[in-house]
Design a protein that fits this description.
The protein is 46% helix and 21% strand. It has 537 residues and is of the alpha+beta class.
Length: 537
């Protein structure tokens, strides 16, 4: 090591700090090290609590959102004419529940007066209950999906969470309410939160500020209990007012906790991860006793042990830092750093490796989003332009031909206008699926905007025109079957412009020629294709 760098070496500084602590005596070491450890461990514990609370909150949010989305889709798909046929409606609910059994205590439908029309699994007691006073029923009858108050089920006799979604007709009028009920302790729902502990005595709380209620908790006696009154827990009062983060607080039982609070966005709830400070800072207590017992250690032995220990501790960190520095300068490829030991340095190296993988995955996902249509998953205009450029170059090189088909849907606007944009999006996905079954794997099917699609067929021989016309005819034929949308069958057609090229055209010229040919097909009566010609270069 360069001697001139010794004064700036972290190893030397730590050795001198250790020597100073020993010489200053037990009292100075006791106060300084205890304060340092409490602050450092407090930060680490708070970060860990926040990470745990974030994980649990995301898990709860995903499970709630998954059930809410399923219920909304079921309500949107429920045929209104089944409301007058209970037996058929029972069968409809049974079929959906068996395919997606997310609601452990079943599904049921109530009419505008709160009476049960059908349910699955069948529970006769439901027919005797009027649900018109339930918060989730009132909200759904007003046209909004709603997550109800967690309650002790009147039939289930266990804590449950009801959700509702309005059942509307084609004009958007609410005719009934679809309700899904899940037991809080059902496997795959909130069982992880209720059965998980942090350390020996810590755990989780799931709180509903709207209802001032503990929805779920590691401690069973707190489930469905009201939250503490204002003033009993300062950090809890701040959380109820909107605070999210970490802090140390004295809970309602008089125990000091390190707590982290994270929101569950889909419900307005929040998760609390808490750990008593007595357990969180147990290392501090053990360290204090150790300092008192070992105050008489010799300075020379301390320096020797410290020097050897720091050498072995920091050697992997120095090597990892050197390797990372080489990667930042482009002298080495981006790759995970080796984890030598499973200590703090190993944890830091692992965290760096996870961050590197996350950045790589993010770059891959951004590249995919930049080149594919978000609705259909097909290549977009950017990726099409790249593949078209390559196809033209290949055609020139090999002396082959290519065909470009410009497809524009006929009758798509009325679907958007009458059934809404969601139905229009579904129609576009079905169109993409049908067209995808026609083109070869080596060819390209792209969506370039709105209801316009492009089919690029490469590596054609002298029969290119016949092959292109055959594909165009198959595309038109694929559109002839009606499209099931929101319980209705709608017709869609397609007008196609076809152009051929030997590779001596520009991408823009090909697209323009195909677009013009497509408009000729529309002028010719729609539902047909027209073979266009590219302008001379």
């Amino acid at each position: 090591m360069n001697i001139r760098r010794l004064p700036h070496s972290i190893v030397v500084r730590l050795i001198m700090l250790g020597l100073g602590i020993v010489l200053c005596g037990t009292a100075v070491r006791y106060v300084a090290l205890t304060g340092f450890l409490r602050e450092d461990l407090g930060t680490v514990v708070a970060a860990q609590q926040l990470a745990l609370a974030t994980y649990v909150a995301r898990d709860v949010d995903y499970k709630i959102s998954q059930r809410r989305l399923l219920l909304d889709r079921l309500a949107a798909a429920l045929p209104v004419d089944l409301l007058g046929r209970p037996a058929r409606l029972d069968a409809w609910l049974a079929e959906r529940h068996e395919l997606q059994p997310l609601f452990s205590y079943g599904l049921f439908v109530v009419d505008s007066r709160g009476r049960v029309l059908a349910d699955f699994p069948k529970r006769p007691a439901r027919a005797t209950i009027n649900y018109s006073d339930r918060d989730y029923v009132r909200a759904a009858l007003a046209g909004e999906s709603f997550i109800g108050r967690a309650v002790l089920g009147q039939i289930a006799k266990v804590p449950v969470l009801p959700m509702s979604a309005p059942v509307k007709n084609a004009r958007g009028e609410v005719h009934a309410v679809l309700v899904g009920v899940t037991e809080l302790a059902a496997p795959g729902f909130l069982d992880l939160l209720q059965h998980s502990r942090i350390g020996e005595t810590g755990g989780f709380l799931l709180v509903s500020p709207r209802d001032r209620l503990f929805v779920a908790a590691t401690q069973p006696e707190l489930i469905l209990r009201p939250t503490p009154p204002v003033g009993a827990n300062t950090l809890h009062d701040r959380a109820m007012a909107g605070f999210r983060g970490t802090g140390v607080t004295l809970n309602a039982q008089g125990v000091e906790d390190v707590s982290a609070i994270v929101s569950v966005p889909s419900t307005g709830w929040f998760v609390v991860a808490r750990l008593p400070t007595a357990e969180a800072f147990v290392t501090v207590d053990r360290t204090q006793r150790y300092l008192v017992r070992n105050a008489g250690l010799g300075v020379s032995g301390f320096l020797l042990l410290l020097a050897v220990g720091l050498y072995f501790v920091f050697r992997p960190l120095l090597r990892a830092a050197e390797h990372a520095d080489r990667m930042t300068h482009g002298e080495a490829p981006l790759e995970p750093l080796p984890v030598v030991r499973n200590d703090e340095v190993g944890h830091l190296t692992s965290a760096f490796n996870r961050l590197l993988r996350k950045l790589t995955d993010t770059q891959t996902e951004l590249a995919r989003i930049a080149h594919h249509d978000s609705l259909t998953g097909l290549p977009n205009r950017v990726l099409l332009a790249d593949r078209l450029t390559q196809a033209l170059a290949q055609a020139r090189r090999k002396g082959s031909r290519l065909a470009l088909l410009f497809l524009d849907l006929d009758g798509f606007k009325p679907i958007n206008d009458t059934l809404g944009h969601d139905a229009g999006d579904e129609a576009l996905r079905q169109v993409a699926q049908r067209l995808g079954g026609i083109v070869r794997q080596a060819d390209t099917l792209a969506r370039i905007g709105g209801d316009e699609f492009i089919v690029l067929i490469c590596d054609l021989d002298d029969s290119a025109e016949a092959a292109a016309c055959t594909v165009a005819a198959k595309c038109i034929s694929a559109m002839q079957a009606p499209f099931p949308l929101r319980g209705e069958n709608r017709a869609l057609g397609v007008s196609i412009g076809v152009v051929l090229s030997h590779g001596d055209d520009t991408p823009d010229a090909l697209l323009l020629a195909a677009d013009q040919a497509m408009y000729q097909a529309k002028d010719a009566g729609r539902g047909c294709y027209v073979l266009g010609r590219t302008p001379p270069v």
